[in-house]
Amino acid sequence: MKLTVIKESRPGENRVALTPQVCTQLIQLGHQIYIENGAGYASNFSDEMYQSVGCTLGTQTQLLQSAEVLLQVNPPAEVIVNQLPPKSVLISFLYANNHPELIQLLADKQISAFSMDAIPRISKAQNMDALSSQANLAGYKAVITGANHLGKIFPLLMTAAGTVTPARVLIYGAGVAGLQAIATAKRLGAIVECTDVRPETKEQIESLGGKFIEVKGAEQAKIEGGYAKEVSADYLQKQKEAVNKSLFQADLVITTALVMGKKAPVLITADQVKQMKLGAVIVDMAVEQGGNCELSELDQVVHSSGVSIVGQSNLPATLPQNASELYAKNIQNLLMYLANVNQFHFDLNEEITAGTLITHEGKKIKA
Fold first, then answer.
1. Is 354 exposed, middle or buried (0-12, 13-18, 19+ CB in 10 A)?
2. Is 41 a catalytic residue?
3. What is the tens place of the pLDDT at every residue in 115-129?
4. Which of 80, 149, 208, 307 has CA atoms 20 to 30 A from the CA of 123?
5. What integer best gives the mean pLDDT of the chain?
6. Are 80 and 180 in a shared domain?
7. Same domain, residue pair 196 and 269
8. What CATH number does the domain containing 29 carry?
């Protein structure tokens, strides 16, 4: 098949869908790969690197007109979709619930679209799970970003001039991003606490050296497809009461709580921010979905009551080389599962296909 990769157009996006190493492996399987000029430059992959492994380079317009399979990181712009041939295939993050007009356009154009954010959370799909691979890096970068805004170091430091006490870090959510944030903050020497709606995460948190903050007397959160479902107002109130002491003592707070297909829950109110330590930092990893902190603003650093609230979006794109390497492997594994060298197998009775296929043969399969 002809696999096409174009340069990402989202502002601040530095990732690329395929790396030269993965291209080598796909070409060895018999695929032809076409790369837009400069597509990998921001990820530290030059045009010469792609050419040296057998990729064909060209302009975006040239490549789209003959594309059989378009591979992207972000949802494509309308102008891109309109240039794709009918019955071609798209694989990218789509976030179908948030982009109904795009999904309808893909259906109208007879494009079969697979969404990388809809990979089922099952064992055989772990090596395709792009949400997890990117969240892992984002959890690491959230700690580094917080440290950059913090006016103190993380570890205990004993000097002739006196002792520097370790920083206290509080993390909301022990998913992939939260667990990586725990591990990173601990490696840097911080005292780390974590809260999560799923009590079964306690063992994972403690295995990384964090302390689990238990919300007593609250109903257990429901889990669907590996994701926590929206919890009640009663639970959020009890969580607030359980966490407040740690929140008000924390130097750095990282929030990671998301609800699939819905606005992120507000976990830190403006009133709570007022009671936090002077100089504390909040890194809101859910800012693109509305934010876990009431005061967060997208791609802004808000200063309120002496607290810095960092709302940086798309953290994986700030680590483009590693993020692209992991995403490209996710794409490769999904391709090898769903298709052979000549065609895709659109088996809607198979759970990975059924989970990821959004549009096919002019119809919306799921959205």
1. middle
2. no
3. 999 999 999 999 999
4. 208
5. 94
6. no
7. yes
8. 3.40.50.720
